[in-house]
């Protein structure tokens, strides 16, 4: 997700390679990667890839409640509402059954 592409984690280290040319530690227990454009990005569960740098709506990461790719950063869903916080400063409805977020930069 850094510079528009997924980056592999360095096996066994918990570090993400290729983010601004340096490994970045994951935030323990959160599944977020620190230091990518100065903000945490959700990892795609089971893949070791970082999603979401490109400023567009991205599928939610199954089982995490995080939406990747909104203005280049992961955004938490508002618990129990099905709405996504932090997209242009307002909650946006998810498109039911698609795993995509509507209304972010008009799409």
Automatic annotation (TrEMBL):
Where is the segment annotated Disordered?
1-21, 61-107
* Domain of life of the native organism: Eukaryota
Descriptive protein name = Uncharacterized protein
Q: Which organism is it from?
A: Cherax quadricarinatus (Australian red claw crayfish)
């Amino acid at each position: 997700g850094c510079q528009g592409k997924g980056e592999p984690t360095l096996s066994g280290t918990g570090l993400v390679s290729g983010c601004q040319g340096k490994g970045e530690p994951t935030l323990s227990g959160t599944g977020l990667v620190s230091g990518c454009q100065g903000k945490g990005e959700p990892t795609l569960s089971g893949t070791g890839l970082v999603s979401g740098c490109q400023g567009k709506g991205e599928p939610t990461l199954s089982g995490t409640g995080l939406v990747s790719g909104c203005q280049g950063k992961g955004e938490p869903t508002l618990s129990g509402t099905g709405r996504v916080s932090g997209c242009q400063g307002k909650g946006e409805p998810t498109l039911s059954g698609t795993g995509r977020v509507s209304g972010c930069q008009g799409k």
